[in-house]
Design brief:
The structure holds 2 protein chains of 2 kinds.
Chain A: H1 2-26, H2 29-32, E1 45-46, E2 56-57, H3 58-61, E3 66-72, H4 77-92, E4 96-102, H5 106-116, E5 122-126, H6 130-135, E6 142-147, E7 150-156, H7 161-174
Parallel strand pairs in A: 3-4, 4-5
Antiparallel strand pairs in A: 1-2, 3-6, 6-7
Chain B: H1 2-24, H2 35-61, H3 68-73, H4 80-85, H5 91-111, H6 117-141, H7 165-193, H8 199-231, H9 241-266, H10 270-292, H11 306-330, H12 345-377, H13 385-405, H14 416-422, H15 424-441, H16 446-466, E1 467-470, E2 473-476, H17 480-502, E3 504-510, E4 515-518, E5 521-532, E6 536-547, E7 550-555, E8 558-562, E9 567-571, E10 573-576, E11 580-587, E12 595-603, H18 605-624
Antiparallel strand pairs in B: 1-2, 3-12, 4-5, 5-6, 6-7, 6-8, 8-9, 10-11, 11-12
Helix pairs in contact in B: 1-2, 1-6, 2-5, 5-6, 5-7, 6-7, 6-11, 7-8, 7-10, 8-9, 8-18, 9-10, 9-12, 10-11, 12-13, 13-16, 15-16, 16-17, 17-18
Classes of the chains: A alpha/beta, B alpha+beta.
Chain lengths: 176, 632
């Protein structure tokens, strides 16, 4: 009976689809986007946005200890929302937080910092976006956590309050 | 105190679980005497979940930050309405809502008059199995009554984008549709088990199917309207995976409602109808899996947790495998022998069934393909709207063609020449109308003209079949439901096409006092207001649409700065006019002396929503209209 076989086709499809979904489930989409994880930061030396500070160099962040590098720009709306969170992070926790000012007008970036406060130890100016390419930055904001010369976490998009508590702070605490 | 509340919430869930297990055992009984239990069990299930849901709402209104869910999704300064809607604006709460509707449908069905008691036992048993699956999930992996380790003084708020009255009612209505198909599924599987899929079965199924379909349509429409005015991107449908997840069951359900009518009238297409009933609910379940497992990346997705994903996937797998195996074993031979004519209404409906399934397949591929490349090829990509537009447009033309012809043909056998004779006035008037339109608007794209032409014919033929004017009397025929839905669909497509062709948008840098021009419209930038509200600060720009130095319409786009969580949203200002919507959005910029605004002129948007409302009204009517059986 050829007709009967057709009735079993849906079952086969379900099995195939379920297996496919099962593997999709364990497939962490964030891992693909960050080939940089586990490696040191690529080499860069960027002029500082802040008057009287020395260049921000990759060696500085690749030293022993935990560092956070936040990629931001004054024209980026989510960065504005994220800024308060960075201020909280800087006030409550003892972290070495660095900024990477991405494709921005220095005058507007300085304005942004003057108005909203500066959570960063130092800010590198990446006007051409070259360093961001090396870092594999998709868009702003993005945040890297570097420990003992290795990138251990990359956060795409703004950090929300809940993510600060659930993801970022546990990673920072882990180091002590 | 919180311990007691948490305990009683969980207890209610457990009582519901126990009752559902008892009721599911009815699947194996062969006598029909247990029927009194059916009503009792269904009532207990529904009451328990309704109480649990009320407790959850109460916790949200009290801003009880002893509970994890309230802490993460509410805030003491949130407006009262959004405290309530916060209860289902998250994974755990919406799951409880989902269960509430499952039990509600079981309860409603248990009250309905069903002659075959044994069949009723089976239906409620299957529905109870579904309830068991979801209640277990709720208790073990998504407990809405989980307590915080230490009580918090303040909550983490709700995404301000979600603080919107439409969005507060969108999920309940959408779920009512989604979950309504669970009962249709149970009716279908029970029908297979007791081998009584026939026109009597179709009559029972028909009202439930139309009910669920109407709510699903309304739910999708509300979501789309929300996206249109809240997100401020100028669109109403984005082919987002989560939108697709609701569109897929809708497409299957639309095919299903037509088949149910055919089955009821002509006692034919049994196995196909049952298959569609199973597929529709399977797609609802799959949508739930896609949205809640974190497999898809979308603005809609809930916080992901691999354990939850695995649970839903396993449950989905079990339900699908069991139901399709039952289908494979039982459906052979349920089709009644029937004389088939190539030119008949059911043949036309069958063609459009295939067209709908084709569209479903296109949407399915577009949704799954990025997952596939991500998994197999290790590259991330998104499938854009152009894929859907290109592939669906030709299929839509076939759909329209058969939507026009099928209702004009007899149920048994007809002649195509009769159809053309019936349509002669409509054909001539539509042709003239399209000719005038194309010359007036310089429209020369063949596809657009074809769709516009077919839409106009569809509207005219639908209206003329539903409302007949004879001997100075206006007669409303029993097919009024179809008339409304089909002409609504014509209007909807007409609006979509002309909207796609004639929409205009432009970005301006504007200072107070500036005059902006977009095509024939002149706008004046009047002033800027700043004010503080309960949980946000706002910057508002005031624009006027000018007509000969008179202020015709006022626009007040806004940018809101929410405090908790710190978020910025842009509030669109829309003015609906008869033939076009005008839409002003403010962008956030750094410049201090001017603001950046985007102005959209979107023609026929009003008709688009009227079309949708007509479709929904047609569905509502069809729930209540009883069809006559045709002896073939």
């Amino acid at each position: 009976m050829p007709k009967r076989i057709i009735y079993y086709v849906p079952i086969l499809l379900i099995i195939v689809l379920s297996v496919f979904f099962y593997f999709s489930l364990s497939n962490d989409t964030s891992k693909i986007s960050s080939p940089i994880i586990g490696k040191p930061l690529p080499e860069f030396s960027l002029p500082s946005l802040l008057a009287g500070k020395s260049n921000v160099r990759s060696e500085e962040l690749n030293e022993e200890g935990t560092f956070i590098l936040n990629v931001w720009a004054s024209w980026c709306v989510p960065c504005r929302a994220e800024h308060d969170i960075l201020m909280v992070l800087n006030n409550l926790h003892d972290v070495k937080l660095y900024g990477l000012n991405y494709k921005d007008k220095p005058s507007e970036a300085v304005n942004f910092i003057n108005k909203l406060g500066n959570p960063f130890k130092n800010i590198g100016v990446d006007q051409s976006g070259r360093t961001a390419i090396d870092l594999g930055v998709y868009g702003v904001p993005e945040t890297f956590i570097i420990r003992d010369g290795k990138v251990i976490y990359k956060h795409i998009g703004p950090i929300h309050m809940s993510e600060l508590d659930e993801i970022i702070v546990p990673i920072l605490k882990d180091s002590r | 105190m919180n311990n007691i509340i948490s305990l009683s919430g969980n207890l209610l869930l457990i009582i519901c679980l126990a009752t559902s297990i008892l009721q599911s055992l009815n699947l194996f009984t062969t006598n029909s005497y247990t029927n009194n239990n059916v009503k009792l069990f269904s009532t207990i299930q529904f009451t328990c979940i309704a109480l649990a849901f009320l407790i959850l709402i109460f916790l949200f209104t009290q801003s009880n930050f002893g509970f994890e869910l309230v802490t993460f999704h509410s805030h003491s300064e949130k407006p009262f309405l959004y405290k309530i809607s916060g209860a289902w604006g998250n994974h755990e709460g919406s799951l409880l809502l989902w269960i509430l509707i499952l039990t509600l449908f079981n309860f409603l069905y248990s009250l309905s008059a069903e002659r075959d008691k044994l069949y009723k036992n089976k239906v409620t048993a299957i529905q109870s199995i579904l309830i068991i699956g979801f209640v277990l999930f709720s208790i073990a992996l998504s407990n809405p009554f989980a307590l915080n380790e230490s009580p918090q003084s303040e909550g983490l708020g709700l995404n301000p984008i979600l603080q919107d009255p439409l969005l507060a009612i969108h999920p309940p209505i959408l779920y009512f549709g989604y979950v309504g198909f669970s009962l249709v599924f149970s009716l279908a599987v029970a029908g297979l088990l007791t081998s009584n899929i026939n026109n009597v079965w179709a009559e029972t199924v028909k009202s439930w199917t139309f009910l669920a379909w109407t709510f699903l349509t309304a739910g999708i429409a509300l979501g789309s309207y929300w996206a249109y005015y809240e997100l401020g991107w100028g669109g109403y449908w984005f082919w987002d995976p989560v939108e697709n997840a609701s569109l897929m069951p809708w497409l299957a359900a639309t095919a299903l409602i037509h088949c149910v009518v055919v089955l009821q009238k002509k006692n034919t297409m049994q196995s196909w109808t049952v298959l569609l009933a199973i597929i529709t609910f399977s797609l609802s379940l799959m949508g739930t899996f896609l949205v809640r497992s974190g497999v898809l990346n979308s603005v809609h997705t809930f916080a992901s947790d691999p354990g939850r994903g695995l649970y839903i996937l396993s449950f989905l797998f079990l339900v699908l495998i069991t139901s399709f195996t039952i289908y494979a074993l039982k459906s052979d031979g349920i089709d009644k022998e029937n004389s088939y004519s190539l030119v008949s209404r059911d043949a036309g409906i069958m063609v459009n069934n295939w067209v709908l399934i084709t569209i479903l397949f296109i949407v399915f591929l577009g949704t799954i393909y990025p997952l596939f490349t991500d998994l197999v090829l290790n590259t991330s990509l998104t499938v854009g709207p152009s894929y859907y537009v290109m592939t669906i447009t030709p299929v839509i033309i076939i759909l329209l063609l058969f939507m026009i012809i099928s209702p004009l043909v007899n149920w048994t056998a007809g002649k195509l020449s009769n159809v053309i004779v019936k349509m002669r006035y409509v054909l001539i008037s539509s042709l003239t109308l399209v000719l005038i339109l194309s010359l007036y608007f310089y429209l020369f794209s063949l596809t657009e003209l074809a769709i516009i032409f077919l839409c106009i014919i569809l509207i005219l033929t639908s209206v003329s079949s539903g409302i007949i004017y004879s001997r100075n009397n206006i007669i409303i025929t029993p097919s009024l439901g179809r008339t409304l839905s089909h002409s609504g669909f014509g209007l909807l497509l007409l609006a979509i096409v002309s909207n796609a062709v004639y929409s205009e948008e432009k970005i301006f840098d504007a200072k107070v006092g500036d005059t902006l021009k977009l095509s024939d419209n002149t706008f004046k930038f009047e002033k800027i207001n700043q004010f503080e509200k309960q949980n946000y600060n706002s910057i508002q720009a005031i624009f006027y649409l000018m007509d000969n130095n008179k202020q015709v319409e006022k626009f007040s786009p806004e940018i809101r700065f929410y405090n908790d969580p710190p978020t910025i949203t842009s509030e669109t200002s829309i003015v609906h006019r008869l033939f076009e919507d005008i839409y002003i959005v403010m962008n956030v910029t750094q410049a201090t002396n001017s603001i950046s605004v985007r102005i959209h002129v979107k023609p026929f948007m009003t008709f688009l929503w009227i079309g949708v409302i007509l479709i929904i009204l047609g569905g509502v009517l069809s729930v209540f209209i009883k069809n006559k059986k045709i002896n073939a």
